[in-house]
């Protein structure tokens, strides 16, 4: 099997994702968010944290650790996908359980913490980071839980793929797709 993720190894969906503009956009935005968050936490965020009331300070400390962990997971996943795309890592290795990203804990709810003493900028970074992490989880699920060659077909995944192909070609007819599925 080719290390570059060529189509013969069943990684068409990965190739189309990592080779496209969507991946480049997610990668750039994700890495920029990691950098922006680190700059905030090491600079203005550190100063803000010193002035917070006790309860807000505890929330800030706990959330900043979770935020950092999730962003590092997202960044690692993005770098790994880039390595697969560039032929530096095999798709099979990237699909190992230890490299997968999923949400085990509930997301941090920045809206629930508004007006409770946390800095607005911190809550904005939390919300954006949670959205990125959720997107990475969905992408991981879509890329690595799709059936590999020789595995049983997934009817729902097939229908979603048909809808995606139709939307990409501009020939989307939901009734045609629905009738074929019957």
Automatic annotation (TrEMBL):
> Which InterPro entries does the protein's record reference?
AraC-like_sf (IPR038301), DUF1465 (IPR010848)
Question: From what superkingdom does this record's organism come?
Answer: Bacteria
- Gene3D superfamilies with a match to the protein in the record: Protein of unknown function DUF1465
- Name listed for the protein in its UniProt record: Regulator of CtrA degradation rcdA
């Amino acid at each position: 099997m080719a290390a570059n993720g060529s189509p013969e190894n069943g990684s068409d969906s990965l190739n189309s994702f990592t080779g496209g503009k969507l991946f480049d956009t997610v990668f750039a935005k994700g890495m920029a968010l990691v950098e922006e968050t680190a700059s905030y936490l090491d600079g203005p965020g550190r100063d803000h944290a010193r002035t917070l009331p006790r309860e807000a300070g505890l929330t800030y400390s706990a959330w900043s650790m979770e935020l950092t962990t999730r962003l590092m997971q997202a960044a690692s996943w993005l770098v790994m996908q880039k390595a697969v795309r560039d032929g530096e890592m095999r798709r099979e290795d990237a699909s190992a359980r230890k490299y997968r990203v999923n949400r085990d804990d509930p997301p941090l709810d920045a809206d629930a913490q508004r007006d409770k003493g946390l800095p607005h900028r911190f809550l904005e970074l939390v919300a954006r980071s949670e959205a990125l992490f959720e997107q990475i989880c969905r992408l991981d699920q879509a890329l690595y839980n799709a059936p590999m060659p020789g595995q049983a077909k997934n009817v729902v995944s097939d229908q979603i793929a048909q809808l995606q192909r139709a939307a990409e070609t501009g020939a989307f007819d939901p009734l045609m797709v629905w009738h074929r599925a019957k």
